[in-house]
Amino acid sequence: MRKYVSIVEKNRHLMYEEMMDAAKLLFNEQTEEQEIAEFLVALSKKGETAYEVAALASVMKSFAVDLNVPQGNYMDNCGTGGDGSNSFNISTTSAFVLAGAGVSVAKHGNRKISSATGSHDVLEALGIRSDFSTEETAELLHQEGIAFLYAPNVHPKMKRIGGVRQQIGKPTIFNLVGPLTNPITLKTQFTGINRPDFIMEYASVLRMLGRDRAIVVSGAGGMDEASLAGQNAFVLLDKGDLIPFSLTADDVGLKYADPSSIRGGDAQENAAIIRAVLGGERGPRFDTVALNAGIGLFANGQAETIQEGVKQAIDSILSGRALQKLEAVVTFSELVNQKVVAR
């Protein structure tokens, strides 16, 4: 690992094969944690490349737990995190909206690392377990068309690295890699990064990893979600083509809103926000979820335009179907709890 730290500290990008070797060393129990931290910090200072991200994602996924899920048109909508916006859990809320609109969602996520409240912190506050077995996860996905994959459960080799990331306390390449390492094979994806300069490269990583169709967003103000607060930059991956485009809330029939209007809090506060949005409470939080879920529906191919996707997302909420998906996952979790207690 010392060799690769030295190369990166000299500001040289690693070739794909070099990064594959370095990635295997990251997951090797014999590699010193200090060297792992130095490598991650050096990569961050240098600036990660598409090849480095793709190589690490490939190695990390190869070590993931096999969930034995039958092939299907599964989608993920998690972003990289680390944007410092202190927003509520937009992509987690949007996942229920997507599922309510008929999309099969396998959402990858974690507890807070570089954000105030991670997806699994808020899911736990909503009454949803993080420690479903592989069989339970597959059953939930089949039964309700939505499942949340807790990264430490599906990536056991990440345990040591998770500790190192918490010590570093800033976003690293693992923030970029997180949305790319879902153990379930995805056909489509909607993901966000807080680096507008990297969206084309990130979309090319998704192409390298075999996605049929995907959208990458870098939101106004550097959010890793689409924002109501200005111009959002996107790249659409469609049949191998990478197509850049941009849009504002106004372009899809929604109103501008200041970023402060979508701030969240701790897990309990964010859980209450999610329930309010899925309950149909209108305002900037509702519109932000409708925008992001609408883009997800377009990425998935269920909507022919983002504007149509936004309409479908609003219908998923106002019809009660999105909230029904949340309640169904909570009920499933309660049944698992009862089985655990009965053992």
From TrEMBL:
Residues 72-323 form the Glycosyl transferase family domain. GO terms for molecular function: anthranilate phosphoribosyltransferase activity; magnesium ion binding. Binds 2 magnesium ions per monomer. SUPFAM superfamilies: Nucleoside phosphorylase/phosphoribosyltransferase catalytic domain (SSF52418), Nucleoside phosphorylase/phosphoribosyltransferase N-terminal domain (SSF47648). Mg(2+) 1 binds at S91, E225. It catalyses: N-(5-phospho-beta-D-ribosyl)anthranilate + diphosphate = 5-phospho-alpha-D-ribose 1-diphosphate + anthranilate. GO terms for biological process: L-tryptophan biosynthetic process. Residues 11-64 form the Glycosyl transferase family 3 N-terminal domain. InterPro entries: Anthranilate_Pribosyl_Tfrase (IPR005940), Glycosyl_Trfase_fam3 (IPR000312), Glycosyl_Trfase_fam3_N_dom (IPR017459), Glycosyl_Trfase_fam3_N_dom_sf (IPR036320), Nuc_phospho_transferase (IPR035902). Anthranilate 1 binds at G79, N110. Its EC number is 2.4.2.18. Pathway: Amino-acid biosynthesis; L-tryptophan biosynthesis; L-tryptophan from chorismate: step 2/5. It comes from the Bacteria. Mg(2+) 2 binds at D224, E225. Homodimer. This is Anthranilate phosphoribosyltransferase. The lineage of its organism: Bacteria, Bacillati, Bacillota, Bacilli, Bacillales.
